[in-house]
Amino acid sequence: MLRTRFNFTLIITFLALMILVLIIQMSAGTAAAGDEGIRPLIQTEQPMSDAQRQAQDLALLDARVEEYTAGDRAEVFSVFPVSVKAFPAEFPQCADGSCYQVDIYNFDQNAAVIAMVHAKSGTVIDVFNIEGAHPQVNKRLYSLAQQIIHEDADVEAALGFQPELEQIRLMESNRLDTTCDGRNLCATAVFFVDNGTVWVMVNFNTEEIEKIWWTDRNLEPDYNDYSNHREPEDCGTTDSVNKDGWTLDYLTTPNDALNVTNVKFGGKDVVTSMKLLEWHAHYPGNWGYVDYTGCGGGSGGFPIYPYGDTQVNDMYDDTTYIGFEVVQDFRMSNWGNSCNYRYEQHFQFFTDGRWRVATAAFGQGCGNDTTQEATYRPVIRIDIAADGAADDSIAVWNGTSWDDQTTEAWWLQSGPYTTEGYRYRVLDQGGDGYYVEPGQGQFGDGGTGDNAYLYATLYKTSEGAIDMSSIGNCCTGNYQQGPEGYINSENISSKDIVLWYVPQSETITTWQVNQGQADAQYCWTDNTNNTWPCVSGPMFVPVDSCVAETAVAPTAAIAAAANGMDVELNWSDDAANGGGYEVWRGRTPYFDPNGITIGTVKVYEGFDTSFTDSGILGNTFFNYTYIIRAKDCSGTSTADSIRVGEFDHPVVMGTP
Fold it and tell me: Is 151 a residue whose pLDDT tops 80?
């Protein structure tokens, strides 16, 4: 009887456990994914909101997702919301804030399968299969890699100790003499021992140690503190700027760092989106890291998080105000120590209509602290929109004239340059556009020259318009940095063009300076108080296409505000008035804005087509007249509206 009771208890316990497992799987959406064979994110491993779970279920039931993953090993890596101000124009449904991006990795095909889901309507808007790309790994795989390293006997033998889980910090990596050369998804942890460095690479495809190797390092083993970890800051909120004739939005993204969108100057389109997909930190030889900067999207993978909020800072040339910049800092938790990176993004906007995309790498690298340190290559995507997204063309300076390019291509930065330093030009069919001035050390920010690759491709939603997976290999040392995969001889003449800019900055360490091998450090940090960032990035200079145009006099209207105190002015706009408008006010009807007339003052300057002059009405001692002055974009031509004015007359009591 005792034996029978014992077996019955086991059966009951087993059934209860099975029911519990089924409940967990159903709550995680496993039932929805069962037929496809895709491993979903599971709530107990990576918590999700109800909306995220719904988006995952919808994606995993989609026939296109099934087609791209049928018969292959695949897994959901992340599910995150799409910003209401940064979604592609092709997805207007996302304006209601209920869109989610579901990132799936197909291990067998080495491809990212990305589903765009509109949760409110319960539909999958689109699905992209991006070959040679992969999202950030999820928390399950990251923890699995830590466990593999922790338990591996060869790792323990190489280190001389068994590493604790909190000591194991992983970053996505490539090594060209292994299957982690871009074919498989891999990550590497670095350990400092006996004045040297041990690199341990894990292959997520095989779920095994791929390779262990050693490099020299002139540091003590306890130089790094592995326990410190900083959570993301400034994530999930889109902010806007309206300043100096510029309007734009900005958002720190899950994977693509700071994304600046909807950029206009003087009311004209300039850029649809510009962002930084990833950093390639390439060490001498054939290995290195692919670094993400961003908020991570809840993936739990390898992002370097934003450090502090995004800043909007004024820029000065000596004491003269010249514009503003939008800046985001990204730092690893132990930055200042070896193998801890810091990166910055700068988007600079000048009062004269120029703009620049600049990036900065601080180090400190994972090499030997002497001559074996990283070359940094940021992959920058610029969806340029010269007076609108469509109808743009790119030309390259050949030494005497501009050569128009008709098909997708890439170029390595070199001469010839124009006398102003321009190498490329982007124009729309109306003649508006920009010269592209690569960095040659001329910008006064410590940059010594970009040696950059520029790629021009036809706009496609799957090629970076959405939050992008990793597309590049850190360690080829040539043009194969990711964007070349989108070059396939498509026509780009009078099309929507995307520019990709990949600078190359080589580290110069303090050791090299002390040895007389260089004058100053570069891409290097001794400690948090001694840094020498390498700054790179192109300047975009407006093509002066309106010199021959003549400003058009606006049609002005004047009215009293409802409060009976303010004057409201409105006027018409014209494309020729690219330099904006001025509102002049005088105390006499025939005042001269160009002369010296008592009481004449410029009360407004900008690009709006209305202005309120407060507290003007009701003063019977002064009556005011207004002129609306239009300017062309070169500032050489102006045109004045007719004069409009207000008149205050005292009311005198009559005699009955």
Answer: yes
